[in-house]
Amino acid sequence: MNNGLNLPPKVTERAFARLAEINGDGPVRPLRVAVAGGGCSGFQYDIRLDDVAEDDLILSNGGQAVVVDPVSLPFLAGATIDFTDELIGARFTIDNPNASSSCGCGTSFSI
């Protein structure tokens, strides 16, 4: 995966800004980005607010955090986590250099 590079995923300013909007004035919960088996292409992204686990990689900026578990990390090496707000909807997106193909909605991929 990722041609042997072990680069951590990157999170854009736009994604951190949207996470700050979601968290608002309440308790700050990190955004978990994980990879699980399934979906129409073999793997799927699981993106949700969650708590930090002991062995998570924590990517933080401005008091906001994105966490990735150690099992998902190799699948997300070098990926960019972003937030898009388009006519078809607003969502967190992942530009993943490890994915050889992905489905049309962008939530599942194959390696």
UniProtKB/TrEMBL annotation:
GO terms for molecular function: 2 iron, 2 sulfur cluster binding; 4 iron, 4 sulfur cluster binding; iron ion binding. InterPro entries: ATAP, ATAP_core_dom, FeS_cluster_insertion_CS, HesB-like_dom_sf. It comes from Paracoccus kondratievae. The lineage of its organism: Bacteria, Pseudomonadati, Pseudomonadota, Alphaproteobacteria, Rhodobacterales. This is Heme biosynthesis protein HemY. It holds the Pfam family Fe-S_biosyn. Residues 10-106 form the Core domain. One of its GO terms (biological process) is iron-sulfur cluster assembly.
